Amino acid sequence: MTALLVEETSRRRTFAIIAHPDAGKTTLTEKLLLYGGAIQLAGAVKARKERKSATSDWMAMEKERGISITSAALQFEYKNFVLNLLDTPGHEDFSEDTYRTLIAADTAVMVLDAAKGVEPQTRKLFKVCKDRGIPIITFVNKMDRPTKELFSLLDEIEEVLGIIAVPRVWPIGTGPDFRGVYDRKEKQVHLFEKTPGGAYMAPVQVNGIHDVALENRIDLEILQKSREEIELIEDGIHPFSEEDFLNGMITPVFFGSAVNNFGIQLFLDNFLQLAPSPYHIPLKDGSFMNPVASPFSCFVFKVQANMNKVHRDRIAFVRICSGKFERGITVNHDRLDKPIKLSSSFAFFGQDRNTIDEAYPGDIIGLVNPGTYRIGDILYSSPIPPKLKPLPVFPPELFATISCPDSLNLKSFKKGIEQLAEEGILRLYSSRIIGAGNPIIGAMGSLQFEVFQRRLKDEYNVITNLYNLPYSVCRWVKKISVPQLPSSANQITDTEGKVAVLFEGDWEFNYFKKNNPDIELTESPEYV
Ligand code: G4P
User: Fold this and answer.
1) pLDDT, mean of residues 50-74
2) Which end of the chain is more exposed for a tag (fewer CB within 10 A), N or C?
3) What is the best residue among 18, 27, 57, 260 to mutate for testing ligand 1's pocket, by most ligand atoms within 8 Å of CB?
């Protein structure tokens, strides 16, 4: 363990933002990047449409639709910390890939729209973080707009998500009456004034929320209401404890307005103190990996083909778990059981790539992937592989067959579906009934199918036909010999050669299970 490794590791914060679409994730990302000096201030005043395609979006379709489908990691420095922001797509209808990106994070920032509270997509993403033991910090956005009643918003977080919401700041007024936030810890008031581009205003040091000096600055009625609310909070709210936060029992809550750049710096400064450095990689035995006491290791959490039309190569994104990465090092590849030299390593910022010579735990780097890496692969330089907890599998719920009507294009079709399935944007199966030429694809949302077809066309020049299949439940089978299936079910084989059965719905699945109690069916191929 070197002093440099310890220092570099402890100044890293690797996190993801989870939000329902439109809650303000893109806007918050941009503002955070501004503090890191990563993008020009001009970003804040760009035309709305243009701004919709944040720096991390690179695909034409994302830009057209103003959504982020694939995810990337952005690195920026702020106050001597190195922040690695994993960009998770926020569209309602996205893929397993999104969930997997969260696995590479040590902390999640949950952005809620103050008027809407906990929305469905937030709930799903939250669950992944909770299952993985990733601590969550909440940012309640759009305080300049009419909001829900704030105490019921806190209750909603507790009831819907099962986590205790502990406000670290409290808003003074909401919507048109929004005047700022009170920092409970520092006893400072940050006054909200709309400034062009959301310029930063220094906080006002006060002697608690009852300080009379505030009465010259804030309408008495608004101030009085906040004073009462803050009293209630000071008396009744669950106290903040770092342990409870790291164990996922509580979430510290901040309030602000991303578009007005209000409350962001306060949030960011607190975030740096709250968010853990990269210690959080879970091991199979339930403990966590010590990033500085172990030799180099990393795992592949994302594979991306054709990120850039100029390069046309595939990139495997790895999250460094332990030790120092140095370009050119030779590591062991667990699945292939052979040594590999890591000579092409990059950091990405949207379309741009820079060669990375060294990196530390928590960092995300891209490795050129000539088919060597798959999601879940572990690379390590210790004599035996680290026993990392396997990545979770999220079973698809929508299925279709895909075919290529142009027989001259079959080679590109095959290459395209294989490479894109390798990215994990959807799952690929074959079925004896449907025939080898028409693979079955499985996804969690129909947008994935649309993205898949669009990318086959754009990147592989292949036009495809897609036929939706009537299944919604997929279960892997422990025994290879599957008994006679009902005509409504379909036996399939995944790309690893593992057998699964597709059922039309829960009723059909449960009926089959009842009649075949000795057949073990699992949601994930991991255990097969
Ligand atoms: P997303 O990535 O989570 O999908 O959300 P995004 O940042 O794109 O924000 C969604 C909309 O909410 C954007 O409006 C954005 O300007 C607005 N917004 C973000 N933060 C705040 C805030 O603090 N206050 C208010 N009032 N609005 C905020 P838009 O798409 O540009 O236009 P429109 O939806 O206003 O028409």
Assistant:
1) 50
2) N
3) 27
